[in-house]
Amino acid sequence: MNNVHRQFVLNLICLSFLVKLCSTYTYTDVDILYKNLTSGYNKQIRPVIDQSEIMYIDSSFNIITIQDISEVQGTVTLSGFFSFSWIDKNLAWNPADHNNINSMDFPENILWKPPMVNGNAAKNIKIMTVENMMLEVQEDGRVSFFPGDSFTFTCDIDSSKFPFDTQICTMDLLTWGYSNKTLVFNDGLVATDLMGTNSGWELSSATITGNVFGKLTIPGVEVKFNFKRRSYFFIMNLFTSGQLLGFLNIFVFILPQESGERIGFSITALLAVVVFITIAEDILPATATPKLAALYELLIQDMALSGCIVISVILSSRIYYQKDQQAIPEWIRKCVGFKFCCCNKKHPNFNRHLTEPNSVHVLKSTDKIKVDLQKDENTNELTWETVSKFWDTVSLCFYLLWFIVGNMKFFIDTL
Q1: Domains in the chain, CATH or no CATH each
Q2: What Pfam families does this protein's entry cite (predicted)?
């Protein structure tokens, strides 16, 4: 019984090999089918039996890499390949009549294919084709066309929110010489399986849709890309460094006048900001359409702030070293006087001591009262040095507020 079972299994294996051998087609089979399909074939005629019918074409795009996005030139360059497929009834066959041939490859120059052109190409507009490329044809007549290249197309780039900007760009592919009454493109997918990483940009989303372009109703596809800039590098190298320079410059008003380093410190900080902006110009997008980049505006604001700080420090030093014999104008006394009125109300030393109920304590603190009175008299006497300190306090608060508001505006405008 075991021998019978073993023989049965061997027979099945041999039969399967024979079936496979019989179903394998040869060079002659392919040559015959090739000649049958191409004999009398006219690639200039749209491959539909009823020429009044609309021909539908499926489309998709496989992106390989984002090569460059130029803000100045307003162009996007990327590489990838399209996939177009359609039914050509003139190329259909019955596999049973041709030794089970299910598919064949044909040279692209002998079959009809849609003449696709890049409608918004940044350079020359030419029909998309690949020399020596093969078109795959299935038994039901479905033809697959895979043109690939490095595509450069125009895009209206808005860098006003740099470095947190996103760009929406479209690549328009048109069929040269056809209208929407003869060809219609179906919506498809954009595949990113083969896409490499770009250090400056990432692809947030992408779609490909059939569209009709212009008054001539030219059919084609619109490939829409949503690019998002990778902002970490710019935040660490431009924003953080630039704002640190501006922030440090504000604290020049804390330095004592006697040190003699205030003007030198503020001018050095101003020059540092100017040099930093000069270096940053090579990284920042050199375009003002529709407006300057937000980060560039922030750096210009830091330069203006540092320049105003230099002027304020010079004025403070000028006030501080004024001669005491020169009278202080009344309007300055009024501006500064409010501060001293508030300070005196907080320290009513004289009235507090006179109203002390304990007479013994009053006698013991007579010397202290005299000292307090002397301090009050000195406090109430307004000097140029006091005016300079008041100016420093106001300047410190003003420029700190300027710095905070400017940074808040930057994040509100960009995020």
Answers
A1: 42-230 (2.70.170.10), 233-328+383-414 (1.20.58.390)
A2: Neur_chan_LBD, Neur_chan_memb
